[in-house]
Specification:
Helix content: over 70%
Oligomer: single chain
Strand content: under 5%
CATH class: Mainly Alpha
Shape: elongated
Order of helices and strands: EEHHHHHH
Strand order of the largest sheet: 1-2
CATH architecture: Up-down Bundle
Structural class: mainly alpha
Radius of gyration: 21 Å
Distance between the termini: 52 Å
Length: 225
Amino acid sequence: MTNATLSAEGPNPVPQRTAVAVQFDDAAQQRDADTLGMWLFLATEVLFFGVLFLSYSVARAHFPDAFAAASRHTNLLLGGTNTAVLLTSSFTMALAVRAAGTQDARSARRLLLLTATLGAVFCAIKLTEYALDYRGHLVPLLDFAFDVDLRQGALVFFLLYFATTGLHLVHLTIGIAIVLVLAWRTGRGAGPRHAERVEVAGLYWHFVDLVWIFLYPCLYLVARA
């Protein structure tokens, strides 16, 4: 089985054989190993975030009124905008994977850069939201102020809010770095395995998007449904 080189010159590269590492029998087995490795990594990430979602569920059941009140202090406009931005980035990443698979280097590079840009927009909006939270005295351990009767539950809510969204932001930042490296390699004329790497990176990007899809209703829509 052979894969064509993703050339920066256009969609008609000169086919080359994919370099196969010594531990693999052929390119197909190597690609399957790459994909399996990413799925196993994502499985560990599911367990990692799963603990946080379980903690959220237990805390929400224990402090229902406080969680509802605290959720009303989140910025629905910024959260909704970020959701739209991240969903759009997931779409552009899927297009980038397709372009890389058809050896359309020019389109792949542009779509990867657009995906990274959308990710950066998400980060900028989220950091702006954090600044607004700080001004609103909603950051635990710094200057947290809330209704006395609901303060304990609200404190737990915002601890989970900053923990989950902060970790998501770290994962997204890593994803942006990966996508930028892939875009750079595409522009310089990547090797035969480049399309496979873009596809694997796409799995990671979609996972990060999926985590946010679960975070958004849990944090922003508790008392607004």
